[in-house]
Amino acid sequence: MLSYPIALKPDTNGTLLVTFPDVPEAITVGKDEADALVQALDALEAALEIYFSEKRPIPLPSKVKRGQKAVTLPALATSKVLLANEMVNQKVRKADLARRLKVNQVQIDRLLNFRHSSKIEMVESAFAALGKRLEVRAV
């Protein structure tokens, strides 16, 4: 899974400002550290959707340093990031992928949407249509 390092900084109004060194578009605040981490995941997913919609490669996270906080994307979201990046790398449009999978383009829109609970089998099929294989490991 992808773990993005974050920076937590006390804000002037008593909240914590959360920024992501790897994804400058992701910025949020939290009442305390626990709330900041919850808000950070939402901010990260929202920012990554910008990359999806603009067909830009999604930045992969840098290494988390000792003592640094991080936000980890769930497994399904991680697979969607990797799929989107592979589509950008291969210059495959959503319509192209839909044709390869013999599905409606709306299904591809959902597949690339973090808020949609896609089936992992569909993500796996999309990777196969791109000549890739999705691997899941427990470590």
TrEMBL record:
InterPro entries: HicB-like, TTHA1013/TTHA0281-like. It comes from the Bacteria. Pfam families: HicB_lk_antitox. Gene3D superfamilies: 3.30.160.250. Residues 4-100 form the HicB-like antitoxin of toxin-antitoxin system domain. This is Antitoxin HicB. It comes from Paraburkholderia humisilvae.
